[in-house]
Amino acid sequence: WSRKVIKKGAPTHLQFKQGKLYYARSSETDRYHQYSDLFEFDLATKKEKRLTRGMRLSDPEVSDLGILAIRNHHLQSSIVRLSPGENEISTESDLEVLFKAPSDATIGSISIQNHHLLWSMRHREGRWIFVKNLQSGEIQRLTSLDECLHPSWISSQDLPQAILATCYETSPVGKGEASISKLNLFDLKSGERKVITNPLSG
Q: What is the pLDDT of residues 68-110, one digit of tens each?
């Protein structure tokens, strides 16, 4: 059966590179299926180009290594890389899987800096942060049993030096407990972790 798009979503997670915008956009078909695909918009020609079709991709991250994105398909969350050409990408064989999450985990965000891939992942035991060296293939997990979100790079001369992330901890407040958000710094060279801000102590 053919799929007819009956509803389109707004562009999300916009990325800019060399005069073009890259973004994800969801669509709903007459068969009640929901898809999210990647698009490219040329600011000079004012033309939009569809890059993928039916691939369920979101959160594009554009780099010299290609376009990275999160794929959620059949209850499986993964990070994939694609190299768009003249034709739309519509088959799994055109996607390179860089990381596949466990079946009970969901990837939340991705970022790339100089061959280093950074992402957060929600697991039943917490929200974890990972770094993968795309040249060596080495994967490092920076957190364990933590609730850490929104990781971002701190770089020097395009080389990743450290990672900032918001981490939530349960702390005693008055006669009870509360979840307190604290900004954490992860030093990639020394492996040291520091709490930068603490709402309770300043």
A: 999 998 888 999 999 887 789 989 899 999 999 998 899 988 9
Q: Which of 35, 116, 109 is nearest to 69 (CA)?
A: 109
- Do 147 and 166 meet the contact criterion of CB atoms below 8 Å apart? no
In this prediction the pTM is 0.81
| CA 164 – CA 153 distance, rounded (Å) | 7
Neighbouring C-alpha atoms within 13 Å toward the C-beta of 161 = 5
